[in-house]
């Protein structure tokens, strides 16, 4: 990974300038692009680069900005500020309380300055004073809270990875599928921690590579990890705090695996403290942060719904501190300051939380820390003045009954020998095929039992089919079939089904049908093969029969699959959606487009309730809906679903993937067709007709 250079300029009282360059990795906190947009100016009468506290502060600032200037003379600092002409830069001044009342009135109206933060002084002394100066975003006594405020000023979207679910989504107790999958992921990570709680070497290696200026702290963390509590480490070093929450927010699987030991330890400590703390009265805590304007509007329309923070959630019993964090975001373009007021009922203990001041590196801060992915109900949203919102939340354990049932069913489906196996299964069902394949291949490298090798080979082949690597898939299942001894009926049936899918992708329909039927016969004779597999085989047999134009037989198999799914699966199970989609496709082939759309919409509703929003299956169903609307000449609907298909499929597959090419060619064709139909110019219509013939020809090739 490329390195970047930090420019640190120190200016003494005589105006003498000393600059130094520090090389560091740009991935340590923000993107290099974000860091280049910031000039950080630090005015402190007591600044001494040889003192440990100042070294720590400067080190933390270097994670946030590439261009840092320190001053001990206010006149020199003001001259420097007023000479800056670069309007593309976000200038932030950190000022020692010694100078604040003298300097701030002189520079408050300076257009170059975005924000002012007062550091190291009594907050009560400056609280009322700071209200007269809108650019003063807060008065801070500790580096920890100041850094968190800086992060939000530099990148307002830094902490906005949240799920907001309104009551209009099915009912007021509904929680979305993103939450379901994140809950399952959290469970697996905690299990991985239990199975491998002492291995932190890969994370230490990652830290040395990505935080080269943190060498001393990383070594301290590695050497003395067991001497201090996880909460201490979480609060002591920002590179740990930031990396944990970034990995959770972005679902960075590789990083989450490296940090699973710490995520588990931190969660367990919070859980232990929560279980031993006797909270007798309701507790009110606060959190201030920035949200985009769209997210605030969504909150306003989601009263009675839910919000889930995809990170370990820091809150405070001190309203004033949280209010400062919120206010620091209210003047940022495109961002609103939000003050969350959270009511905690001691009778509701589904989500662990703990008061951290006895264990935190910053014991003076009255922080309440919630474990990751805690759910809150949105009780009230009030819009204040100057882009500011007040949001009342309450801790809840209410969940949608159907979603809970689906979580239980999904949990059963992703069982495996180890938590790593379960993680690969979960990623596969989330449509994260490349990440799942990477784990399967690593497991295959150490697999010894024959059943384990066959199992892993089978899933790698299935992923290859999804990714369009049909030749590789056929090779994998052929190899699996050679090694299969038939002693494990479920695995044998899966291998036959995998080969059936590979043959299907090669247009070898008769061979594919025979293999699927063989898998079904094994499943029907075996007591150990689950309903999920039987439904899969029945559905796939119906699909191949449809391709062979045996519509009546296809309908029979689809109905058998649907009967089992409706009787045995939760109402929103994705397998049921797959059957509805195939029935919709069958009616499309029979040119009953209205009935086709009815079934496709049934499938779409279930998929939206059971799959992540970027799952490729959603792209496929939007593509099929678009085709049906084309046949009905409903161009706006066709283009709407066609565009959604392309957008969703591109989130999983590369542009050259057969499904992406197919969906894009289809969208191009109907877009040109719509323009052609609207044109009254004869020559234009002829030109469009030529383009249409080329695009449609390409589309038919992609279909094959």
TrEMBL record:
Where in this chain does the record put each ADP ribosyltransferase domain?
241-385
Query: Which SMART domains did the record assign?
Result: TPR
Residue windows of the TPR repeats: 493-526, 577-610
Q: Pfam families, per this entry?
A: ADPrib_exo_Tox, TPR_12, TPR_8
Xref: Gene3D superfamilies: Tetratricopeptide repeat domain, Toxin ADP-ribosyltransferase, Chain A, domain 1
Q: Which GO CC terms are listed, alphabetically?
A: extracellular region
Task: Kindly state which keywords UniProt assigns to this record, in alphabetical order.
Answer: Repeat, TPR repeat
Spell out the PANTHER family in the cross-references.
NEPHROCYSTIN-3, TETRATRICOPEPTIDE REPEAT PROTEIN (AFU_ORTHOLOGUE AFUA_6G03870)
Query: Which protein, by its recorded name, is this?
Result: ADP ribosyltransferase domain-containing protein
Traced from the root, the source organism's taxonomic lineage reads:
Eukaryota, Metazoa, Spiralia, Gnathifera, Rotifera
């Amino acid at each position: 990974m490329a390195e970047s250079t930090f420019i640190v300029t120190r200016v003494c009282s005589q105006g003498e300038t000393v600059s130094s360059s520090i090389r560091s990795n740009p991935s340590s906190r923000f993107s290099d692009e974000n860091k280049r947009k910031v000039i950080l100016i630090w005015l402190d009468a007591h600044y001494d680069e040889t003192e440990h506290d100042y070294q720590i502060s400067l080190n933390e600032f270097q994670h946030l900005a590439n261009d840092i200037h320190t001053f001990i003379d206010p006149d020199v600092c003001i001259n420097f500020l007023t000479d800056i002409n670069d309007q593309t830069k976000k200038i932030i001044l950190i000022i020692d309380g010694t100078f604040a009342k003298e300097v701030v009135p002189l520079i408050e109206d300076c257009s170059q300055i975005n924000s002012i933060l007062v550091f190291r002084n009594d907050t009560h002394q400056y609280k009322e004073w700071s209200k007269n100066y809108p650019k003063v975003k807060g008065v801070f006594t500790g580096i920890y809270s100041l850094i968190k405020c800086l992060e939000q000023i530099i990148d307002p979207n830094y902490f906005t990875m949240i799920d907001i679910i309104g009551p209009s989504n099915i009912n007021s107790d509904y929680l979305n599928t993103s939450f379901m999958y994140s809950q399952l992921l959290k469970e697996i990570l905690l299990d991985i921690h239990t199975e491998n709680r002492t291995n932190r070497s890969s994370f230490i290696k990652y830290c040395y590579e990505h935080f080269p200026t943190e060498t001393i702290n990383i070594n301290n963390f590695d050497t003395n990890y067991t001497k201090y509590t996880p909460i201490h480490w979480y609060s002591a070093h920002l590179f740990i705090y930031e990396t944990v929450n970034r990995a959770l927010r972005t679902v960075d699987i590789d990083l989450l695996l490296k940090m699973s030991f710490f995520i588990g330890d931190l969660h367990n400590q919070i859980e232990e403290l929560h279980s031993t703390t006797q909270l007798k009265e309701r507790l009110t805590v606060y959190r201030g942060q920035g949200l985009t304007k769209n997210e605030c509007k969504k909150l306003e329309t989601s009263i009675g719904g839910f919000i889930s923070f995809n990170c370990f959630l820091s809150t405070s019993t001190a309203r004033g501190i949280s209010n400062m964090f919120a206010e620091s975001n209210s003047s940022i373009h495109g961002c609103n300051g939000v003050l969350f007021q959270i009511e905690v009922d001691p009778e509701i203990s589904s989500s662990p939380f703990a008061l951290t001041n006895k264990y935190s590196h910053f014991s003076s801060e009255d922080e309440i820390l919630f474990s990751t992915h805690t759910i809150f109900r949105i009780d009230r949203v009030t819009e204040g003045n100057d882009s500011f919102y007040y949001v009342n939340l309450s801790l809840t354990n209410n969940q949608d009954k159907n979603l809970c049932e689906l979580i239980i069913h999904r949990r059963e489906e992703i069982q495996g020998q180890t938590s790593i196996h379960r993680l690969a299964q979960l990623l596969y069902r989330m449509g994260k095929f490349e990440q799942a394949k990477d784990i399967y291949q690593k497991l295959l490298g150490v697999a010894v039992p024959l059943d384990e090798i066959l199992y892993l080979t089978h899933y790698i082949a299935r992923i290859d089919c999804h990714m369009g690597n049909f030749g590789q898939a056929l090779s994998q299942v052929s190899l699996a079939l050679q090694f299969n001894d038939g002693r494990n009926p479920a695995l044998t049936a899966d291998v036959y089904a995998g080969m059936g899918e590979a043959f299907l992708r090669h247009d070898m329909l008769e061979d594919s049908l025979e293999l699927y039927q063989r898998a079904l016969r094994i499943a029907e004779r075996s007591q150990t093969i689950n309903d999920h597999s039987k439904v899969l085989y029945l559905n796939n047999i119906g699909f191949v029969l449809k391709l062979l134009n045996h519509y009546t037989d296809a309908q029979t198999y689809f109905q058998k699959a649907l009967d089992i799914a409706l009787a045995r699966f939760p109402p929103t199970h994705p397998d049921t959606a797959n059957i509805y989609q195939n029935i919709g496709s069958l009616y499309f082939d029979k040119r009953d487009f209205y009935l086709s759309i009815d079934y496709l919409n049934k499938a779409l509703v279930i998929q939206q309730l059971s799959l992540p929003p970027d799952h490729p299956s959603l792209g496929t169903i939007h593509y099929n809906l678009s085709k049906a609307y084309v046949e009905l000449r409903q161009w706006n609907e066709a283009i709407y679903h066609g565009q959604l298909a392309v957008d969703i499929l591109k989130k999983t597959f590369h542009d050259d993937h057969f499904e992406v090419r197919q969906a894009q060619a289809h969208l191009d064709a109907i877009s040109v067709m719509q323009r052609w139909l609207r044109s009254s110019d004869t020559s234009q219509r002829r030109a469009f007709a030529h383009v249409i013939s080329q695009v449609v020809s390409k589309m038919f090739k992609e279909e094959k």
